[in-house]
Amino acid sequence: MSDQQPGFGEPGNIGLVNAPAAVRLSAACWVASAVVAGMMPVILEVAGIDFGQSIPDWAVPYLVAFAVPLTALQVLAAQHLLHGARWARILLTVAAALSALGARVDLTALILAGLLLTLAGGALMWLPASNRFFLVRRVPAYPLPVSGADTTHKGELL
Fold first, then answer.
1. Whole-angstrom Cα distance, residue 17 to residue 137?
2. Element (H, E) at 8
3. What phi and psi values does residue 17 have, to the nearest 5 degrees?
4. pLDDT digits (tens, 9 = 90+) for 98-119
5. Distances (CA, A) of 87 to 94, 96, 126, 134, 153
6. What are residue 57's phi and psi, to 5 degrees?
């Protein structure tokens, strides 16, 4: 199996990206965390299944309204993490810190599993191999246009 992952190459182009194993595992942990700690509690709560951290019935719509978009954002950031997006690594780091700070003492097995996946994903994306990958994948957010008659490199940094 190749180390290359299908996805976004340069902005606007579909291509293959050579992400190190630590970054791939980090992204997998983030997606698993989104399912385990983000969506499973919502699904169980909406279904009325007690998983140890029941919330009042009036709060269920608010849980759905916040959990679904935040979980989608986490999965999107994990996908962009595979392509070296530094904004995704920063966003996910903040998410890991908030998850760790907001963890209750009386964690259920489901929430604890999600927290452990979150912390593992957060740690893996800051390993030395991951740092090298993010340095190599630096792509300017807004390429500077080149002035003058030479248009062969238009939109690229020289």
1. 9
2. strand 4-8
3. -120, 135
4. 988 988 776 788 889 999 999 9
5. 11, 14, 13, 10, 26
6. -60, -35
